[in-house]
Amino acid sequence: MPMIAFLLTLMLLLGVVIVLAYAERKVAAFMQDRLGPTEAGPYGSLQAVLDVLKLLQKEDIVPALADKGLFKLAPILIFAAVFAGFAVIPISPTLVPAGIGIGVFYLLAIISLDVIGLLMAGWGSNNKYAMLGAMRSVAQIVSYEIPAGLAILSAVMVCQSLDFQEISYQQGVLMNAFPGMGYETNWLFGIQALGIDTTNIGGITTWNIFRAPMLLVAFVIYFIASLAESNRAPFDIPEAESELVAGFHVEYSGFRFAVLFLAEYSMMVLVSLVAVILFLGSWNTPLPNIGSIALANWTTGTIGEISGNLWAAFWLISKTFVLLFVQLWARWTYPRLRVDQLMHLCWKVLTPVALVIVLLAGIWRLLMI
Amino acid sequence: MLFYIFALLAVLSGAYMVLTRNLLYAGFSLLVTLLSVAGIYVLLYADFVAVTQLMVYVGGVLVLILFGVMLSSRVHDQSVMSESVNKVWGTVITFLLIVGLCYTILHANLHMLPWLQTADADVLGPEKSTVHTIGIKLMTDFVVPFEVASLLLLIALMGAAYIATDKQKV
């Protein structure tokens, strides 16, 4: 069973990453008024697949003066760290690779292994660009973990759980189906005093950003910080092409480069998934029940049956793609931040705001019960 | 079985960390040690401790150590290697420690410990993790040590900020 979950997640991830790599080029082309890939397949849709095939055929070059052990180990460690994070992500009400009770905490911890891999790659390459890229990358990821962690903490405080599956159930019409939450109630904006019961309305009204409106700010903070954690523009100083060639993976080629590339895109997918699960209602439908028109029930399906699984996976993945699109959009819209601007944003803007949000989330939780 | 794999990994990487001359390799083998110890914590039903270990030691302390080693690895064009010093005192103290630990373990009468006898039962019960219990204990029985530790960390933070400040302007 764990093996099947492993393979399924890996296949799903590869599919999503290939679509994402294609989307990245097409979105970039659209924003710059170009056509992007057009030759391979209809509208160039096979371009990403062919790119992967090309990378796999290339020679695997290990520099003569590199620290060979570390150089070879680093891509594996980086990808393993990111991929291990997917273990706790629920895909549907009944489908989760490893439903451990402290999933959120585990995810935060396992991602920090990624940092070690980056240092290993930067050092092992024995190249000053790689070294500088790794240093910048690690400094950036370690600093932005703090606002990201605080934003996640505020969501966890509102939900009172570290289990991704429990947090998911709370944000929709299926809440009372979760063991131990049979008598919980969702109120509009989370305020019990308003007296509007939204437990059976579901849809967008029970998403975390609606249940506790200050989580909308937390969501924005998390999204910005997650851009920095996956080294995406406007936070791409670790691989700033004009200064550092390509950052920590400058010496990698062939299959090892493909693995690093895959890890980078998987990281984007992972942070978007976490944002969707914690703030945007996870696998729940955005459509609410309105009187007798039970849109939420129709677009949720039955738990445990194939309809429930398909609807949930559909909503989760489409919401994730919306966030991924925003990531691409930001990349081609904003110029790169300087190091001092980067640190200013992290420590003087995001962190204080996130601390206030944590305080507000604590107070809001008192209104909810 | 899993326990022996993790234990073997922890011991081997720990030994490598102590014996290697290259500071950076020592750092990376410390990674393996910490990961295998986290695995052992999970086997002991201490999931929260395991993840905290990853978070604090791997994500924080180890990254700092590696950063430090990398930044200071070439002083005056000479790679920094660890050297063996104080051989006599080191041997004596290690020997004493081993004797002390063996003495304690042999006299502990392990089979009579109450929590070991109930260890076969489902420790966690209906709870899915130990977080709730730890949280309640921290806010009731152990609130004073908890607050003192946080105060200590705050002092350390202020001290670090003070040392790092540019004192030119005074």
Q: What labels would you give this structure?
A:
heterodimer, A: 369 residues, mainly alpha, two-stranded antiparallel sheet, 13 helices, 2 strands, globular, B: 170 residues, Four Helix Bundle (Hemerythrin (Met), subunit A), two-stranded antiparallel ribbon, 7 helices
Report what the structure shows.
Chain A contains 13 helices and 2 strands. Chain A has 369 residues and is mainly α. In chain A, strands 1-2 form a two-stranded antiparallel ribbon. In chain A, a hairpin with a 2-residue loop joins β1 and β2. The longest helix of chain A has 32 residues. The model of chain A has no long low-confidence stretch (mean pLDDT 83). Chain B has one domain: Up-down Bundle (Four Helix Bundle (Hemerythrin (Met), subunit A)). Chains A and B meet through α4 and α5 of A and α2 and α3 of B.
Give a concise summary.
The complex is a heterodimer of chains A (369) and B (170). Chain A has 369 residues and is an all-alpha fold.
